[in-house]
Amino acid sequence: MVVIRLARSGAKKRPFYNMVVTDSRNRRDGRFVERIGFYNPVAAANEEGLRVAMDRLTYWQGNGAQLSPTAARLVKQYAAKQAA
User: Could you tell me if residue 13 is left (phi over 0), alpha (psi between -120 and 50 degrees) or otherwise beta?
Assistant: First the structure.
């Protein structure tokens, strides 16, 4: 099954997550098909903390990809920010 989830990168105590499309059998930080966004939970006030390529997200969801719970929460948050 194809899933959209977060892959961790960054340094110790400085997390940075890439939102990736991958096979569910791959490791969390392993091989992925496409990177469709990022999430930086420790971004400063003037930095961008979240970005999602909504066109690629809808494409993959149309092809049967499932969002992880955390990715779904972030997508909902990003969509609300874009609508405002």
Answer: left
Per-position pLDDT tens, the chain of length 84: 999 999 999 999 999 999 999 999 999 899 999 999 999 999 998 999 999 999 999 999 999 999 999 999 999 999 999 887
Antiparallel, parallel or unpaired: β 34-39 and 14-23:
antiparallel
Q: Assess contact for 65 and 21: CB atoms under 8 A.
A: yes
Show the domains of the chain with their CATH numbers: 2-83 (3.30.1320.10)
Q: Cβ distance 40 to 49 under 8 Å?
A: yes
Whole-model pTM: value is: 0.91
